[in-house]
Amino acid sequence: MSAQIYPPIPHEQLIKEEEDSLAAELEWLLESLQEALASLKSGLEECIAILTRQEPGTTLALSTLRSETVKGFVTRVGTRIVKADVSIRLPSLAPPRALPAYPLRISDPIPIPQLSNLLNLLNQALDIIDVSAYTGDPKNGAFISGQLRLLADTIDEAKSIMKGGEDVVGGKWWEDDCAGDETIYTPPLPPNLSPHVALTPTSLLLTVRTLYPIQSPSTPNSSSTPTSSTGTSLTSLSLRSRLTQILAPPPVPTHDEADRVFMYRGQEVRVRDKVRVESQDPSLMAVGAKLSAVGHAVEGWRWKVAIVRGERMEEDA
After folding, report:
1. Which H or E element spans position 76?
2. Cα(154)–Cα(156) distance, rounded to whole angstroms?
3. pTM score, two decimals?
C-alpha cells in the first residue's frame, strides 16, 4: 500500500515537504518532551525524598528462617545504620561469658555506600534533566537525543546499584572499612568476625561471616582453647573437648565462598561460616518501583525522538 499526492508534485518538492513535515513533528515532540521532563524530575525527587527521610527512620527486623542463628533488628536513617541490636549464633563464633549468643551492637552510625552512590546517581539524573530543559537548546534534536541517552544510562546504573553484588560500590565486603573498625561495635568485633550490610532490589541484606587465616585453617579458634599455661585446669571433660577439636576434622563449609581466598585486614583468609539475612525495606521497594517507571518513560521518549529523527537505536541486551 502506498500514498500518493494528487495532483502530483515534482520529486524534489516531495522530498522537501517530507523534510518539513518531519521537522514540524520533531518540534512538536520536543515541546511535549519538556512537559514530560517535569514529570520525570518529580519522580526522581520523590525517590531522593524517600531515601533521605530522617528520624525516626526505618526499623527492620532481621531473623534467619526457622532458626535463631541471626536474630535482632537494625534502624536505617537515610544512608546510614544508626542502631543495631543483633544476636549471632555460629559454631565458629564463641559468645562472651554468660551470654547465649554473640551480641552485635553499634556505638557509631554505619554508612551504606550503595545508598550514598544511589543518591549521587539520582542527583546526576536531576542535573541532566535541568540541562536538557534550561541550560542547553531544548529544540535541538541531536542535543536532546544525547541527553536522553545520558539520562537512560544514569538511571540504568542506579538500578544496577540497587541490585547489589560485588561489582557495585560497597559490594566487596573484604574492603569494608567499617567491618574492620572494632571501635564501631559494642563489644568490639573479634578478628574472625565480619558483618557486612548491603542492598538487594527490595531489601536490606546483612551478611555475617566468620573467617580463619590460611596459615592455620584447621585451628581458627586456637587462641580461645584453654591451656594449662593460662591457669585453667584440664578436667576430663575439657581434655575430651580439646582432643575432639584436635582429632576431628573441621566441618566442610557449604556456602558459595568456601573455595575463595580474600585479602582481609592485611592477611589472606577464608570464610568458615556464612549466613545471609534479608529484611524487606518498604522505602527501597517504593524507590525501585518509581525508578523502573522513570526508566521506562525515558526509554520510550528515546525511541520516539530516534524514530522522528531517522536514527537507528539498538535495543539493550
Report:
1. strand 70-77
2. 5
3. 0.78
Site of grid cell 572499612: 177
Q: How long, in residues, is the chain?
A: 317
Q: How many CA atoms lie within 13 A of 244 on its CB side?
A: 7
Report d(CA 40, CA 218) in Å as an integer.
56
Question: pLDDT tens digits for 204-241?
Answer: 999 999 998 886 444 444 444 433 333 334 344 445 54
The DSSP symbol for 61 reads: E
CA distance 195 to 173: 8
Under 8 Å between Cβ of 2 and 101: no
Quick one: cell of 259? 573455595
What was the pLDDT predicted at 158?
94
Distance separating alpha carbons of residues 60 and 43, to the nearest angstrom: 25
Q: What's the rounded Cα separation, in Å, for the pair 73 and 84?
A: 6
Return the DSSP state at 85.
Answer: E
Q: What secondary structure does DSSP assign to the chain, as a single string?
A: -----SS---HHHHHHHHHHHHHHHHHHHHHHHHHHHHHHHHHHHHHHHHHT--TT-EEEEEE-TTS-SEEEEEEEETTEEEEEEEEE-BTTBPPPTT-SSEEEEESS-EE-HHHHHHHHHHHHHHHHHHIIIIIS-TT-HHHHHHHHHHHHHHHHHHHHHHH--TTSTT--GGG-TTTT-GGGEESPPPTTEEEEEEE-SSEEEEEEEEEEETTSTT-TTGGGS--GGGT----HHHHHHHHHHHHSPPPPP-STTTT--EEETTEEEEEEEEEEEEEE-HHHHHHHHHHHHHHHHHHHHHHHHHHHHT---PPP-
